[in-house]
From TrEMBL:
GO molecular function: ATP-activated inward rectifier potassium channel activity; phosphatidylinositol-4,5-bisphosphate binding
The protein, known as: Potassium inwardly rectifying channel subfamily J member 1
Main location: membrane
Gene coding for it: KCNJ1
Protease as UniProt keyword: no
Residue ranges of domain Inward rectifier potassium channel C-terminal in the record: 181-353
Protein's membrane topology: Multi-pass membrane protein
Amino acid sequence: YGRVLTEKMFKHLRKWFVTRFWGHSRQRARLVSKDGRCNIEFGNVEAQSRFIFFVDIWTTVLDLKWRYKMTIFITAFLGSWFLFGLLWYVVAYIHKDLPEFHPSANHTPCVENINGLTSAFLFSLETQVTIGYGFRCVTEQCATAIFLLISQSILGVIINSFMCGAILAKISRPKKRAKTITFSKNAVISKRGGKLCLLIRVANLRKSLLIGSHIYGKLLKTTVTPEGETIILDQININFVVDAGNENLFFISPLTIYHVIDHHSPFFHMAAENLLQQDFELVVFLDGTVESTSATCQVRTSYVPEEVLWGYRFAPIVSKTKEGKYRVDFHNFSKTVEVETPHCAMCLYNEKDARARMKRGYDNPSFILSEINETDDTKM
């Protein structure tokens, strides 16, 4: 017993030392962060290509950060109010409605009670936001003023529709729904159903479901083709399943998804001893439709070799109370428990093949059965 305990302590110390010193000394570049953001930038983009972003102005505005969006929101309204305020001032100036021209008593102005640039700005504000205090108003004296009133009203409706729609669309984006989908901090490798599997735990923090959920993964690594071409971020498909498949998940409670490490898996030739020396990034995707808004959302996260624990499984988190309710303890969501696990997938399958051969019999082609005639020496 003491020997087993010593081996376990040595194993933990070795793992802690490798993770603590070797892992921190080599910072791995991640394409996808733990919260799903992509770590990539585009350089040397032509000016003509940048102009395309302004052609698709709606998507560009939606993708802006909130501080830039609010700046555009405020600038659009203040700019339009001030611009039309200048135009109203010009109309009053041309028609000589301002007090500095000393209009006669029977003079009918284009806009009542505009005495300067400030009053023109206030009238522009009242017109565009349809306040209508009743003190300043357009008369039928000037066709130019009537045309300007119609133009500002139409432009004001367009600005209101676009800016309010952009803010509402950004608030209701399914990206925010994805924040309530969480993945385990680590991935683990252990036996499941007699097979060596890579397991990840995912949970839905809301009671509303994701309809038509589909989960899959991509393994990103640098590969060299037989022609000598080096491909950075080469993508390899990783199939993840649960016991009921990988589509239309009943996502009411945390699920443990797993990838079977077989002969077709890129993890087949990896072992517990050389896992940390590998250079890869496992990106996991979860696609689904939000039940309340019918919008499609995608959740993603990634795991580097330091975040893959070999020889562990996840601790159970679902229990049943005395009242008959099911309870999920998220304190153990990312908690792992060490279990006995083969140190490589090849060893597991070789062991299975050896056991299968022991159960089978083999014919010996050089074996010849010779018949012997028995004689009965007993005579009566």
